[in-house]
Amino acid sequence: xxxxxxxxxxxxxxxxxxxxxxxxxxxxxxxxxxxxxxxxxxxxxxxxxxxxxxxxxxxxxxxxxxxxxxxxxxxxxxxxxxxxxxxxxxxxxxxxxxxxxxxxxxxxxxxxxxxxxxxxxxxxxxxxxxxxxxxxxxxxxxxxxxxxxxxxxxxxxxxxxxxxxxxxxxxxxxxxxxxxxxxxxxxxxxxxxxxxxxxxxxxxxxxxxxxxxxxxxxxxxxxxxxxxxxxxxxxxxxxxxxxxxxxxxxxxxxxxxxxxxxxxxxxxxxxxxxxxxxxxxxxxxxxxxxxxxxxxxxxxxxxxxxxxxxxxxxxxxxxxxxxxxxxxxxxxxxxxxxxxxxxxxxxxxxxxxxxxxxxxxxxxxxxxxxxxxxxxxxxxxxxxxxxxxxxxxxxxxxxxxxxxxxxxxxxxxxxxxxxxxxxxxxxxxxxxxxxxxxxxxxxxxxxxxxxxxxxxx
Length: 457
Hints:
14 helices, eight-stranded mixed β-sheet, alpha/beta, Rossmann fold
């Protein structure tokens, strides 16, 4: 992340709105090296899990990248993450800024790690597809998610390349850095681009935006709603603000419209989850398209679908269902592909724009009722798609196309999929292909796929 930024060494990299502490890019790089050396002196190395119990500011960014530089695996924790989760993941130490942490793991203060003599940290060759780069708490109580280096890099690059943040921006994050959306959806992409990141922490939002001349604010919906209707907004000079991004829940179109009018800048919505290593959807054209309550079509490489939560059948446009994300978003040969039910209710319009409604209630399907997720979940399959193909008797018939992770016959896959779906969803054939062609937003190029197996009309 830091090596790719190309930022002005004197530019502020990370600031803490609550304390006022900040570090430049040059200072950040030097401190990361010093703390990484300190961790190595403490016997921390490849594969060790290191808890991070730090405020949203320079200390967090330093510790995060120092742990990774030492070859260890960071596990950010905050008040929402139970203390026993640190023990459950086998963390050997926890880095704090004050020594205050009630868990059983050994505590290391970041100032102590930085104060020692800096030594050379050995360059480590990580297996990007297999080695863990991050452990994090998820929305489920006591649940954690493990992300590989490939997944973390793909997640931050998705945002860095999306246009939400530019290298000249000062980005305020009200999403905590201990949350994957704050860490890999804001902090890491901004550092990669050479922008300045301000962690809000418990500081006053309006003062933070004014004092740091924030250009992009990433906020939960409740804070966007506050900006829309708080009379105090008029007393603050927020002319530097060029965009607000709402993330962490649905925001009503009327609230987005009111906030945009009051602030004089676009209000956009984003969606993501820890298991996907950050944001999966970002609506940068909300104002132009009149879709202020949409999270957009999905960032490049992201494949999603909306299904009936009881039957697993894909929903038609404008029909609500459960949003499912294909994981891992970064496709690797060593990670099984699966569809993750997000637990969020949503619908999509005719243009593929997703509108999140809230949390799902009801029973999810097991097994799924659609052939594509059944095939994608097969241990020998790394990618799958089902598309209609010309048929002499039926006109069109569903054919499945799979990319294999390990050898298996087409007949076995056909028996497997048709044995796990209703008769009305059975496929006529399974074809093994080297790759499933997709558009930049993850949609299957049907005609090209059919041509590859000689089934084009």
